[in-house]
Amino acid sequence: MERKEFLKSLGAGAAFALTFPCVHGCSKDDVTGTIVEEPTGVDFTIDLTSAEANNLSTNGGFILQNLVVIAKNLQGEFVAASQVCSHESYDQVRFVNQDGGIFYCDVHGSRFDQDGIPLNQVDSNPAKAIKVYNTELDGTTLRIFE
Ligand code: FES
C-alpha cells in the first residue's frame, strides 16, 4: 500500500495527526519533566560498588536518587544538589561538563555553580539558588545529607 493510500484509509483526522504531529506543540516551551516539591530531610547513602552508582566512577558523571543529583565533579570530588530547579520546580537539574562543571536545568536553561548559586537569569525571573547537600565518603559508601 502506498503512503498516500495508507493515509487515506485512516481518514482525514488520523492522517492529519500523523502528518502534522506538532500542530499544538513542539515550541520552545515544550518541556519534559515534572513539577515536584524539593526533597526534605535528605540523608541517604550510596554503595559506590553498585551498578546504580556506575556513573560516579568517572569525573563528570552523575546519578539521580531521591530527587538529588549526585555527581563526581571534574576534579573527582562528590557534589550533590536538588534535582528540583529553583525556577519553576521542574525535576530536571543535572550535572553537565560546562564551565568547569555546573548544575543545569534544560527546561528553560537555568545554570548553577556547584554551590547552587545561579549563574544566569531566566525569563527576567530573579535567580534563586538550588539546594546543595553535604557529601561524605566512607570507604565505598557515599553519604548525602543536609
Ligand atoms: S524550571 Fe528549570 S530553568 Fe525553568
Question: Keyphrases for this structure?
Answer:
2 helices; globular; iron-sulfur; 2 domains; 146 residues; disordered N terminus; binds FE2/S2 (inorganic) cluster; Rieske_2Fe-2S; (2Fe-2S)-binding protein; 2 iron, 2 sulfur cluster binding; 6-stranded antiparallel β-sheet; 2Fe-2S; Rieske Iron-sulfur Protein; 3-stranded antiparallel β-sheet; mainly beta
Order of helices and strands: HHEEEEEEEEE
What's the CATH architecture name of the largest domain? 3-layer Sandwich
C-alpha Rg, in Å?
20 Å
- Low-pLDDT runs of 5+ residues are 1-28
Distance linking N and C termini: 62 Å
In CATH terms, the superfamily of the largest domain is Rieske [2Fe-2S] iron-sulphur domain
How many helical elements? 2
Question: How would you state the average pLDDT, rounded?
Answer: 84
Residue share in β-strands:
25-35%
Pfam family, one: Rieske
Organism: Flagellimonas eckloniae
Protein name: (2Fe-2S)-binding protein
GO molecular function, one term: 2 iron, 2 sulfur cluster binding
Would you write up a description of this structure?
The protein has 146 residues and is mostly beta strands. The protein folds into two domains: 1-29, no CATH class; 31-145, Rieske [2Fe-2S] iron-sulphur domain (Rieske Iron-sulfur Protein, 3-layer Sandwich), CATH 2.102.10.10. It has helices at 3-10, 12-19, and strands spanning 43-47, 62-65, 68-72, 78-82, 93-96, 102-105, 110-112, 132-138, 141-145. GO terms for molecular function: 2 iron, 2 sulfur cluster binding; metal ion binding.
